[in-house]
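hey can u run this one w/ 2-acetamido-2-deoxy-beta-D-glucopyranose bound, need the structure tokens asap thx
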Amino acid sequence: MKMEEHEKPCTQTKKECRSITFLILFQFLFSLVIVFYVQSFTLDSSFHPSSSPKAIFPQCKTEAGAWNQTKVIDALVDKLKQSVTFLPLKDLRFSESAMTGNTWFMSSLNDTLEENEAEHLYFPSEASQGRLLCLKGRDTRDGTKNSYALAWKESLPESAILLEGLTFISDTYFNHDNLWHGVSAAAPFVRWSMKNGCSRPSRWVLFHWGELRHKMGSWLGHLMQINYGDVKVEGFDKGDGPYCFEKALVMRHDTGAMGAESKLKAFDLLRCKARKFCGFNQVRRGIEVNERGLPLIKFTLLMRRGSRSFKNATAVREIFAKACAAVEGCQFDVVQSEDLSFCDQVLVMSKSDVVASPHGAQLTNMFFMDRNSSIMEFFPKGWLEHAGMGQYAHHWLANMSGMKHRGAWWDQNGQECPNPKDELQCFFFHKDGQVGHNKTYFTEWAKKVLHEVRQEKLEEATKRQVDDDRQLTTKACAC
Ligand SMILES: *[C@@H]1O[C@H](CO)[C@@H](O)[C@H](O)[C@H]1NC(C)=O
Ligand SMILES: *[C@@H]1O[C@H](CO)[C@@H](O)[C@H](O)[C@H]1NC(C)=O
Ligand SMILES: *[C@@H]1O[C@H](CO)[C@@H](O)[C@H](O)[C@H]1NC(C)=O
Ligand SMILES: *[C@@H]1O[C@H](CO)[C@@H](O)[C@H](O)[C@H]1NC(C)=O
Ligand SMILES: *[C@@H]1O[C@H](CO)[C@@H](O)[C@H](O)[C@H]1NC(C)=O
Ligand SMILES: *[C@@H]1O[C@H](CO)[C@@H](O)[C@H](O)[C@H]1NC(C)=O
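ok here u go:
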């Protein structure tokens, strides 16, 4: 078999000029076809003629009877193009386990596992045999109508559009709008890029259950912009595709298998970048002291309006103001969360040691506080009994971002739901309830928390005399 002509196509049109790797691959495939053909013929003379290269590529013989290699390669590429198979992005066979185990998103592909890191898929990679990821469809209501396939760069499906650079593809069971869910979906990308040369994406592609989403919520948008600059959320506006990605990173388990250290590092980076962007130029506030040399403790009561606001905000404010005033060095502040811009949220949290707030998305900002800062959380009546695991979201976030969740208060008073046996109906009844107060309990609780925080600050102050790495220098953030 003669292959010495393989450089020849490169002297012809650019289209025919293929990379060396590619040629080697096809020479290999071509040899296989020939070897297979010859062997089959020798071993079994009844071998079906349609499997012979002559039958597969009858058009590839020259008049002299030799193989025209350029033609054979083109024919092979054509076959590879046509064999690219698109599968539905959302696989209904896995609808029962969509949140656990095997996700329904790209169900035929196995995650790459690295110890203590989030499961992910990367294309092209060894796991994808060098193939790129392609997507087709842009349905926003039915994930089974969108599909994915793998293809080699040299044989992308007909009329595919190649999107250059690195693409971050996120599928979440929840959404990219809510602060808590948004940061849970984004954290593994942040961590991956820290581990991979601080690489930035050229675009995001967002999915929920395989349904395309055109934007992330504005809070998450800000957070990501601070980390990666202006990055478009791909809407596939040139039609249904297929679109293939030069490089793609897919995350579909939110924080998934990320270990404690990895989560802390991701949130450390998010804190560092946000503080820097918002003009708060300390990585860590460290110990601030009053004129008597005793540590200052900043206590912030973070309020909500409407659902889950306090029934009597004045009373609650008075209780905590008094509790704070009883501790030397404690400084009290009340902040209305809805009135804060993104950077105001970052700044309020950066300056607080203790944040007391009703359950709600505003608490997601907790990771902008110094590590080891404290959270106190309040729930309306009915949550403890009917809200399920989700009510512990801020306990988990505190754990992930290195904060101390100092407990929650579940209001026991208020209207009973009409049908206490119906969990879901009851949850909806109580979901937007307001939070009452218990003066005795709140006073004792605040006293205990402030005492512990003070004690920790005193201990830390003796340990850390010189605090020279606090300033937010250009090198401070890991990326
Ligand atoms: C092989 O095929 C190419 C493209 O079809 C053609 O340009 C070329 O002349 C052929 N070469 C030979 C030796 O027949
Ligand atoms: C994915 O993993 C399962 C279980 O380990 C294995 O049976 C299957 O062949 C793998 N699939 C691919 C495409 O690698
Ligand atoms: C709210 O609490 C304040 C202070 O404890 C009290 O004076 C006021 O009457 C209460 N308001 C309502 C509507 O109960
Ligand atoms: C957080 O507090 C613990 C003790 O509760 C201490 O060991 C640790 O060093 C603190 N971490 C930071 C970052 O200050
Ligand atoms: C989070 O919780 C786990 C298990 O309860 C614990 O081992 C870990 O130390 C916690 N991490 C932080 C930062 O508090
Ligand atoms: C308020 O809290 C105190 C202290 O925990 C408790 O003894 C008391 O029963 C509570 N009052 C109400 C009305 O729940």
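The pocket of 2-acetamido-2-deoxy-beta-D-glucopyranose (ligand 6) is lined by residues 412, 438, 440-441 (CB under 6 Å). anyway lmk if its weird
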